């Protein structure tokens, strides 16, 4: 390759990008732009590479330079939309994806991106209608599945949400946060044994992060394993004792263990942190009417915080 041949650097960058060698591809496109600063295709491809590297602010800047040089670049519009989506600028991302789909409705990344935006904007059924063919594929985009799972979860459609998360995790190794979120969904769907197995996957992969231990404690409460639930909440409260939900769920575990007066104190602490915490207030009112002898030990009458 000639050291100063931008065309050859461009082709090499494109090849490296297709192989997933994003750092090396970025170097190639930078070489192109050092020779031809206004080359729109190089700016557009540079934006695509930066998106893959998670450098979304820089990706957005590259795509905007591409569009300044060539306003009709579909690749730049698509990757600008992806960068905006990852930056949480959903309304702007939607405009980009619509611009691409108005010209070619079959570009899968634009369909997927628009669906993810619609989920975030609370337009669940519209988003599902758009991306359903992609979700039903043998190997759909895991991020799209997770976003569909999260959106259906927020709408109270827990079994449907669980199906999306289950499919996402079957496609290959998932992130610890994905397993943790899946466990939350499974608990809400009443599938507590599966939730326990799933939250342990998060802990094994990501360590004992407080949010994972909280999910573990919540699952143990749901299973009636109150001693283990109590231990989990004691651990997380020792590291972060300012969350009222932790104290409420600790109280539920204590009730299951028959330690009513201590449970009342735990609910009191939750209410000190959040006087408007309805579950903790209701739990306190009901638990403080009981004597230790009256507690049935199943915990089902009390409200656990997800």
In words, what does this structure look like?
74% of the residues lie in helices and 0% in strands. It is an all-alpha fold. Among the domains are: 1-105, Tetratricopeptide repeat domain (Serine Threonine Protein Phosphatase 5, Tetratricopeptide repeat, Alpha Horseshoe), CATH 1.25.40.10; 208-306, Tetratricopeptide repeat domain (Serine Threonine Protein Phosphatase 5, Tetratricopeptide repeat). The chain is elongated. The protein starts with 5 loop residues before the first helix and ends in a 19-residue tail after the last helix. Residues 291-301 have low confidence and may be disordered.
Give the total of beta strands.
0
Give the low-pLDDT segments: 291-301
Helical fraction equals over 70%
Query: Major beta sheet, specifics?
Result: none
In terms of structural class, how would the helical and strand content be classed?
mainly alpha
In the CATH hierarchy, what is the superfamily of the domain at 1-105? Tetratricopeptide repeat domain
CATH level-1 class of the domain at 1-105: Mainly Alpha
Radius of gyration: 25 Å
Note the gap between the termini: 59 Å
Number of helices: 17
CATH topology of the domain at 1-105: Serine Threonine Protein Phosphatase 5, Tetratricopeptide repeat
Helix-strand pattern, N to C? HHHHHHHHHHHHHHHHH
CATH architecture of the domain at 1-105: Alpha Horseshoe
Mean pLDDT: 89
Shape: elongated
Give the amount of beta strand, in percent.
under 5%
